[in-house]
Q: What sequence folds into this?
């Protein structure tokens, strides 16, 4: 079944991101919908004795991610507790202006680009993962690198990789 409505595609992508970020140790739940105040997924990343609250906005767009989405995420993040990490999960690359705004934001932001292993596949992986300078200053124990086991981009905590195996996502209604 091929999804045609932006709502159905967006909802499917939110479920894909939910499943995919679980490979990074994030424990999230879907909260998107009417009255979500810009939050599609909410949860936390628990590493050792540290627990980082997280919100995720998901954007499934063909064109490059614009500054508009960074500003939306920043506005949403301003309504959260001060130590909350904001993540923008997309399928597309970012414009150079978006990257500049992202890296210079005064709020802790993370970018995750999620792609199917093959177009139409039920397997998804993290193509790119970035932390901005604010999150790096607040949480210097977090890092990004290529995982030895999976060969994928992933999160590191105190120099140790967090499992980033390719996520299988059943029942792909976009096929």
A:
């Amino acid at each position: 079944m091929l999804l045609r409505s932006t709502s159905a595609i967006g909802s499917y992508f939110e479920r894909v991101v939910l499943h995919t970020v679980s490979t990074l140790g994030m424990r999230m739940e879907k909260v998107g919908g009417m009255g979500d105040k810009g939050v599609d997924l909410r949860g936390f990343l628990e590493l050792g004795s540290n627990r980082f609250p997280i919100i995720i906005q998901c954007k499934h767009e063909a064109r490059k991610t614009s500054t508009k989405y960074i500003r939306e995420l920043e506005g949403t993040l301003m309504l959260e507790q001060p130590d909350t990490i904001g993540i923008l999960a997309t399928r597309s690359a970012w414009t150079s202006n978006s990257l500049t705004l992202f890296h210079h934001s005064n709020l802790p932001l993370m970018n995750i680009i999620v792609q199917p292993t093959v177009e139409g596949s039920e397997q998804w992986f993290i193509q790119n993962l970035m932390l901005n300078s604010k999150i790096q200053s607040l949480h210097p124990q977090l890092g990004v690198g290529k995982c030895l086991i999976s060969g994928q981009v992933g999160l590191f905590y105190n120099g140790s990789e967090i499992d980033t195996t390719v996520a299988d996502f059943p029942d792909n209604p976009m096929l």
About this structure: The longest strand covers residues 50-59. Confidence is low (pLDDT under 50) at residues 164-175. The first helix runs from residue 6 to 21.
